[in-house]
From TrEMBL:
Compartments where found: Secreted
Species name: Pomacea canaliculata (Golden apple snail)
InterPro entries per record: C1q_dom, Cerebellin_Synaptic_Org, Tumour_necrosis_fac-like_dom
Protein name: C1q domain-containing protein
Highest taxon in the source lineage: Eukaryota
PANTHER family: C1Q-RELATED FACTOR, CEREBELLIN-RELATED
Residue ranges constituting the C1q domain according to the UniProt record: 38-168
Leader sequence segment: 1-19
Keywords, alphabetical: Secreted, Signal
GO CC, one annotated term: extracellular region
Amino acid sequence: MMAIGLLVLLVLMVSKVDADDVSYLQKETTALKLKIDLLSKRVFFKATFQDPIASCKGDQAVIFDSAQTNVGNAYSSTSGVFTAPFRGDYVFAYQTFSYGGADISWDLYINDQMALRARSRTSDDTSNESVLPVTLQAGDRVYVKSHLDLTFYGRNHSFFAGWLVTAF
Ligand SMILES: *[C@@H]1O[C@H](CO)[C@@H](O)[C@H](O)[C@H]1NC(C)=O
Ligand SMILES: *[C@@H]1O[C@H](CO)[C@@H](O)[C@H](O)[C@H]1NC(C)=O
């Protein structure tokens, strides 16, 4: 009777330990799956213009209408707006390439707030780059805005690019 009682106790203990181990492993596996899911996310775009000489309207998003790369499809080549698909650290870069001596005033906007102001005062064809690392929440919108109506070198000269560094 005593021996059976001990055996039952032992079995109960062993099954308790096993259950703890299993639930620990399940938790670890779930956490790892989430990590892997975050690490596997890819967002990466580069957009330029179809036309070699392109133009844009003042006080509006510059529409880089030719997306050469758009992994994750977060950039819209019809609106010029990038929409963050999820929270993370991102980097954005754009190059302006002036046509003749036309100054370029293109700023980077996040959710309609200016995040980077850039000016290129040029006396001839000039390319300048601007880069901004930023943490975004899902749904945040990023775009380049021009102060003035402008004509500039487009296809493969001026571009807008961005990529996800880490989702978290
Ligand atoms: C833009 O490019 C011009 C011509 O190369 C250069 O003189 C100027 O310093 C650049 N401006 C910036 C902000 O990099
Ligand atoms: C523009 O760049 C793309 C991508 O690198 C390339 O495939 C294309 O041939 C270039 N177009 C011109 C006109 O240089």
